[in-house]
Design brief:
202 residues, alpha+beta, Ribosomal Protein S5, domain 2, four-stranded mixed beta sheet, 6 helices, 10 strands, 31% strand, flat
Length: 202
């Protein structure tokens, strides 16, 4: 991130001035992340991983126009995860744009120990079973006991690992070979962990 960043939004100015010092404050106040530099300042240890890159073509009057489409996931391995996609004529530009969009789509994941086989209380898995959908793909994320690992496909493992979920079962339905639909369904399921309020959270 360049040191000469000039915020274009109110949230960006609050972050640069030091009035907002953590990403949790943004989520608590329901502020939208509209600039990737906000995440660069508040979450310096963010990791990124490219899920898929492919060549897409579009027919125009002048002929076929080819561009690269990149799907990138970001996360800190401790409850934050984001997913972004972008197109460009160059692979590096496509990845860079996808990373920026993933940063602006950052969400917080409610973790816990919801498996009846474990009940250790540490946030190594999920609190409850959640469902997510994107396109034709639907996934069910089920809490698992400590030590089981991630029983899921490669794309889902990337998303769950970046979110800090170490033990989880996954059931998937639909055209799971489509990378964007699969990653989007897992992202949607992780997002829905914030919609459930248990009695212990009252």
């Amino acid at each position: 991130m360049s040191t000469g960043w000039e915020p274009r939004t109110l949230v960006g100015r609050l972050v640069k001035e030091g009035k907002i010092t953590s990403i949790e404050e943004l989520f608590a106040n329901n502020y939208r992340i509209t600039e990737p530099e906000i995440v660069d300042l508040l979450v310096p240890n963010l990791q990124q991983e490219v899920i898929d890159i492919k060549l897409v073509q579009r027919q125009t009057d002048a002929g076929e126009k080819s561009r690269y489409k990149a799907i990138v996931a970001v996360g800190n391995g401790d409850g934050l995860v984001g997913l972004g996609t972008a197109k460009s004529t160059q692979v590096v530009m496509a990845i860079e744009r996808a990373v920026n969009r993933a940063k602006m789509n950052l969400i917080y994941v409610q973790r816990g120990c919801g498996s009846w086989e474990c009940a250790c209380g540490d946030p190594h898995s999920l609190r409850v079973t959640v469902k997510g959908r994107c396109g034709s793909v639907e996934v069910h994320l089920l809490p698992a006991p400590r030590g089981l690992g991630l029983v899921a496909g490669d794309i889902a493992k990337i998303m769950l690992r970046l979110a800090g979920v170490n033990d989880c079962w996954l059931r998937s339905f639909g055209e799971t070979r489509t990378p964007l639909s699969m990653a989007g369904a897992v992202y949607d399921a992780l997002k829905r962990t914030n919609y459930i309020v248990l009695p212990s959270m009252w």
